[in-house]
Amino acid sequence: MPTSRTPTMAPVAMASSTGLSRRQMLGVILLLILPSALVVVVHAEPILKIRTTEFTRYNEVIEYQSSKSYNPRGMAPLYEITNHIIDLFVDEYPIPDGYITVQEGNIAAGPNVADNNWGPLLKQYWAILLVAALCIIMIAIMPIMGLCLCCCRCFGGCGGRSQPFDKKHDTCRRAILGFLLICSTSALVFGVVVAFVTNSYMQHGVENITTSARHGVHDTRLYLRSTSSHIDHVLNKNYQELNNDLKQMLNDASGTIIKRLEEQSKAEKLTTLYQFVEDLPGISKNLEKMKQLTSELRITASQLNDGLRGVKRELLTSLNKCGTQDCIKVMEDYKIGRLNVNGIDYNSLPDLSEIIESVKELMDSSLGSAIRKGVKQMEQLKSTLNQTVLENIPKVQAASDSTGNAIKDVSNMLTSRLNNVGDTLDNNSYKHLDTADEYIQQYSIYRYYAGLGISSVLLLILICLVFGLLCGICGKRPDGYGDDCCNKGAGGRFLIFAVAIIFLTFSVILAVALASFLAGTLARRAACDSLRDPANDQIVSYIDQFVDLNRLYSDLRAQAERSKPKLPVSDNMEQISIGQVIVACQQNESIYKVLKLNNFVDIDTIRDFPEQYGITRELNALTLKIKINPVQILTPEATEDIKALQASKLNDFDVDKFTDNLTYNITEYNLNEIAQKLRDVADRVPPGKDMNDIKVNLKNQALHLSSYQTNLVDPMIVSTNELIKLSTTLDSSLKFGEKSFSDAIDKFLTQIKEAENYINKHGMTFVQNITEELVTGFTNQIYAYIKFVIDSTENDIGLCGPMYNVYESVIVASCDRIVDPFNGFWAGVVWCLLLFLPSIIFGVKLSTLYQKSDPYPGPMVESEYLYDAYTERDNIPLASGPKNKRRKKQDRRRESRDRREIYYEEGSPSHSRDPRYNDMAPKNWDGAPPRYQNPPMAPPAAEYERPPPYYYPGAPSEHE
After folding, report:
1. CA angle, residues 446, 451, 454, in degrees to nearest 5
2. Do residues 8 and 35 make contact, with C-beta atoms less than 8 angstroms apart?
3. What is the reported pLDDT for 268?
């Protein structure tokens, strides 16, 4: 340690003494640390590039049928209000402590029941008891109150017999009571609509609950099938993918080890040199070909040169004699005076005879056999490694197959259990749902008709009240003769009929509403609230204690231990509850975590499979069996032979002498082109005796040039091309990328010697390292797959979100579509019942007011009416008082039922008769018998009619 610190501390001290900044000091430290870090990185770099297996992912797309969507269709505020009302009556913990005990699947009474201590229970449910008591009292007294009212009206009381004219404030009373009854009736509309709508919604929910249940069963079976397929995909298909890659890796192991050893030791140079020696016959053949081509080129070039000299001589003579502008132009353009072989000296090409002889000597020497011995040494090394690997491959593959079979057994066990659960669910659910459909179809209609009957009664009462208000407000007063059907009297009768129906049905409806309230409250708190918050609900905790999943898991765990499966159970048993299962499903956990399957199938124990089934053991044995014996690649004799090769004439081969002295342009111009031009010039030579000879000569020379191009120039171009190609290829084969053949052979010798030393000194270590790396890569692949299986099992296989969707759909189908409309129904009915109570009072009072036939007559007539000798007569009206100015609009209606005023006005010139002497008895002048009249000159009546009451105002002094 001191030696390692000294180099680091000295620069720091120096930096501090020279006043370096902290950043500069940090730079110095990094410079000292980086080289060692780079060394570590270089040594840590793996020798092999092992390909990681890419597992195919399970991506099956599944469409589930269950849906938790719900549209309350305008009833959501009512349901919220109803639930808030229920929350006022029911506590968060509905069962106080001490009244129920659940132990070992049995429900028993608590100590408070044994001690007869009901105080806490009464204290918690006093509000419900109070409501029930009030309802029972109302159920009992409402028929009695109705009977009393009926008897009272039959005896003339309670509005059964009233005065025929209004009292002083009856108009105001009629308006106020009518307004109040309008308000209560308007509010009744809401309750009646709620009753009809919720009754219909509830029936729809009841009829469709089995459909939702079937969707839930279908989705559950689909989920189990998908989970089973996912398990089979991960544990079977993915393992087969891994196994195939591992087998391929094992089959390529020997080749990979040898290849990497050759690359590291550079022993492949021996193979290159051996290949060169083996190619010496081909090199000799190429040299012979080059020698032949060189000789042919020399001969052909000599022939071409001689021919071109003769053509040049003849052309110069003819073109000069021609003297035309075309002749002069051809001679200048094509430089006829310099027509030759383009200045190429083919005699300067090297002679390859000595090189060929040297190659033949090397072929006849022992060079090939000496190098072949070294190659055989390497081949023997490869064969030994390959044989060692091949002997151990079957053992490793057998261990891998055993592991795969064990994993497959686990997969088959899990998928079999899931499939059994799905089959059991299929066999035991649909038949019960069919039975439920029959019961629903047979009996639910009665409940619907009962609700419809109650709603219809409410509607009938509402209609009576509405018609009573319409007739009472819009109709005219009744007079007993020729009344309209919708006068105020009819309105009063409608109101009394509504009151009668209320008294007749109130107790029955209230009893149904009370029972519905208690049943709806119980269903909502015991079922719906518990299902929506199972983790913190008291009822669910009691169900947990009653069902006791932990005891069931203990039995399953004991069965699993006795069956001795491939995967043992976990050491510690985790507790489980229904609430935890539902919450885990809500969080979309895997089925392994949701059901805590590790209690009887511990997936973590799959990590021991490579050791348990011998994969690790066989791989370690493979590492120990791979060995490398010392080799001698080149013997001293082989070294001497290679040096002789290095000193051979092959070293004298110079490709530049061929590429520099050869060209593809044998002549400066194409001879065919010159020949064609000469023919054109000959055709334009002017006629004449001498000119004809020139013309013939030009055409003859053009023919010679074309012949030279075809027979000499073109073959020379082909030979030149082949010669250049052969020389270039041979140069590349001889130099091996070096400057010369001698340098290449010298480098070969050096590298082969270094390879021999590396194999003998470091080869064993290198091979063992690379083998260990191969084995480690193999093992890592297996453990990576095992980790993939564990992660998939714990986090991916059988995600419970679809099951929670089924759970939510069941809640929606039962609570939102049945319980909420059920509670909404009794809420609407109770609303109507509460409004019936003031409606009874308003209806009775308004019916009495609507039966009065005449308006208020004034205080004098009203007081006179109190002294009536004929009180036993029914409804004897007094004379009407003076006409009210506000009732001028009713004059026309009154003319049709009371014509006494007209008679008096016509019979008395002075029109001074006091109106109080008029007879107020009803008269019928439209076909009915005339009643008593008292005009001054009227004849006596045909029959006796009651005289009007006498009125004596008293002495004048009494009025003064």
Report:
1. 125
2. no
3. 61
